Amino acid sequence: MPEITENKNKFGTLESFIRSQHSTWKSLLSRASRNSSDADPPNDDISNHLIPNLSAFANSVVARCSKILQIPTQELQHRFERELPESVKQPLSYARNFLEFCSYLALFQASRGPDYLSNNEFRRLSYDMMLAWEAPDAESEPLTKEATSCSNQQAEDEDGWSLFYSSSTNTAVQVDEEKTVGPEAFARIAPACAAIADIITVHNLFEALTSSSCHRLHFLIYDKYLRSLDKYDLAP
Where are the domains positioned within the chain? Predict the structure, then answer.
């Protein structure tokens, strides 16, 4: 019982934190667009400026966010430090919160265009944001690949099949050598784009997507999910 209560409290904090960030960061993006409308686009050297607090992979994600936003990475960091509350800038959580800051802004900007779910780069970047979330800082060790292939019997127990798992998909997942995403990373990043997930049901969605992969999300399955949203026009 104490563990259940703790998880509920944690989810409540998570929900309020993301909601407040969405409101604040949409306002920041609107101001950023106005301020940068007369400025030259950032060159590659500025956009790829490394943030010492971040891991190499997180830096690569932030650089891609910078290009989407047309705001240099250093300027993104300055705005994060200047306009966000001190509570999200503590040393132990700085890297992860800054990554979220850049990711939320970039997802908000990218999802304003038409047919963004059909864009391969959008689908890959949004997944990479989750991977970076799991190892955001310079001290983070690369995540070891977990065993993600459940037994056939376990897969059959999940109502016999999963919407995103055909036999060919399941075989491909078993030989997939890419890193996978856990539930907390998915819950932190996915709801930033309303078409991908809702903050209230995001954990249920993750369970559905990973029911046949031992609760770790492969890019193959995530990509198939986003393609299905686009194909059947399920995005809001």
Answer: 2-134, 152-231
- Other Cβ atoms closer than 10 A to 186: 25
For 37-48, the pLDDT digits (tens) are 444 544 555 456
CA distance 136 to 152: 34
| Alpha-carbon gap, residue 102 to 116, rounded angstroms | 18
Prediction pTM value: 0.76
C-alpha 225/C-alpha 195 separation (Å) is 11
Which runs of consecutive H residues, i.e. helices, occur in the chain? 2-36, 44-47, 56-69, 73-83, 94-110, 120-134, 152-157, 167-174, 183-189, 202-209, 219-231
∠ CA 196-176-99, rounded to 5°: 45
Dist. CA 189–CA 107, nearest whole Å: 9
CA dihedral 208, 102, 41, 113 (to 10 degrees): 30
Question: Which residues are bridge partners to 54 per DSSP?
Answer: 137
